[in-house]
Design brief:
The protein has 275 residues and is of the alpha+beta class. The protein has helices at residues 2-10, 21-28, 32-44, 70-89, 131-137, 142-149, 164-176, 218-236, 259-266, and strands at 48-51, 54-57, 92-99, 102-109, 124-126, 181-184, 192-200, 203-212. Strand 7 (192-200) and strand 8 (203-212) form a beta hairpin.
């Protein structure tokens, strides 16, 4: 059994490799039924994960439980951008990843508002209640969103999304805004956030958010968050994307704002209607 499990794990030659059951059986020369049984065991033990795009390395295989591995690479790539965002805006900056129905905070870069933001590195929050979580969920297929979140939705505040239908509607609006997610008192009262996902070839790998009080001009600084997430994506995944990949993720427009558009958006008033 150990030998067969090793054969299967070795089939995932990079941390972003996605394989179907047929791919695994072909690479390992194992019977399809045997491969399926072992894959199910590895998914239950979190060595692998299974999504609409196939099987991939899970938290244990990537060393996520210890805070290193892929998480360390994400933190290293994002760190300069997080500090630039904090200096430019004066707001608190978060970096987080998806972990099932929760987001896990990898980094928090604070300003004078940091002490009043009840988050911490290593802490967690429900995906449906945070801009970070919604920004990443928007990149997933609806079936995967439901597999992650259904049965876990509950109200944290009066403004928290409370049903799957409402969540799907919100994710649709995020896609229409080119991936921008907002949060206004949904996780903690008196806290507002704007977030954008860091994307890999198979979907979201993390997200960046700016956090302030309800009066913070988040609409004005939103393009900065989008640009920071895009730059970190390019740092982590520099190879150009190829056409005809076998994975499926939710459709979100690829284009982002030009420098000219970003300057115009940043020059608008706090109550501008650019969204």
């Amino acid at each position: 059994m150990v030998e067969r499990m090793t054969l299967i794990m070795d089939a995932f030659d990079t941390r972003t490799t996605r394989l179907s059951l047929e791919d695994v059986a072909r690479r390992t020369h194992l019977p399809r039924s045997t491969a399926h049984r072992i894959l199910d065991q590895l998914v239950r033990l979190r060595w692998l994960e299974h999504t609409a795009s196939g099987y991939g390395l899970g938290r244990r295989a990537l060393g996520l439980g210890g805070g290193d591995g892929a998480h360390g690479q994400i933190r290293e790539a994002a760190a300069p951008r997080l500090h630039q965002l904090q200096i430019r805006t004066g707001l608190v900056v978060h970096l987080a990843v998806l972990d099932g129905a929760e987001v896990q905070y990898l980094d928090k870069v604070g300003g004078r508002f940091a002490a009043s933001v009840p988050s911490r590195v290593g802490g967690r929050a429900p995906t449906h209640s945070t801009a970070l979580g919604k920004a990443m969920l928007a990149w997933l297929e609806p079936e995967e969103v439901e597999a992650r979140v259904e049965g876990t939705i509950s109200r944290l505040t009066q403004r928290t999304i409370a049903t799957m239908d409402t969540l799907h509607q919100e994710l649709h609006r995020i896609r229409q805004r080119r991936g921008l997610a907002f949060e206004h008192g949904e996780c903690f009262p008196g806290i507002a956030c704007v977030a954008a996902a860091i994307r890999g070839p198979e979907g979201p790998v993390a997200a960046i958010s700016l956090v302030g009080d309800p009066q913070a001009p988040l609409e004005k600084v939103a393009p900065l968050v989008v640009d920071a997430a895009r730059q970190v994506s390019l740092e982590l995944f520099p190879a150009p994307r190829t056409q005809g990949r076998a994975h499926r993720t939710a459709t979100v427009p690829e284009q982002t704002w030009s420098p000219q558009t970003m300057d115009r958006l940043l020059a608008t008033g706090r109550h501008g209607d650019w969204l």
